[in-house]
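Can anyone check this?
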Amino acid sequence: MPDLDFPSSTDTFDGVSTVEVRTSANAALIPTIRAVASDLAARADFDLDAISDLRMAVDEACATLVDVAAARATLRCTFLVRPERIEVHVEVQAGRADAAVSTDTFGWRVLQTLADDVETHSTPSSDGHGPTVGIRLDKRAGEPTR
């Protein structure tokens, strides 16, 4: 998969920490990524509602991409942890040349509700396989816990 729009795993400048998780594009492994999202948000002192929203948004983004993934594809999830928000990039190589993330589904509406900002991207394949498709979302920390 290309590294477009993804920071190096060593970038930790301006208060940004980067965490990347790669798994097989298999729905059974999504809870692992969801747990990482929840843990990162808790460590960043997100409020409980924001932690829950991020966890569910990451789950929905991963599930959406697993549905369009090629056989034996890798699901790549990168978390950019900033002081007041977490930016999440999820991508996978699609199984069909015409594959795209659908933005007219209930799942997409859920993503828009849970995340503060969400968008899709697609990069054509240079090797004749399906494109790399992805979802980027942002979640702000919410009110500090007391």
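Reply from J.R.: I decoded it. Residues 6-13 have pLDDT under 50 and may be disordered.
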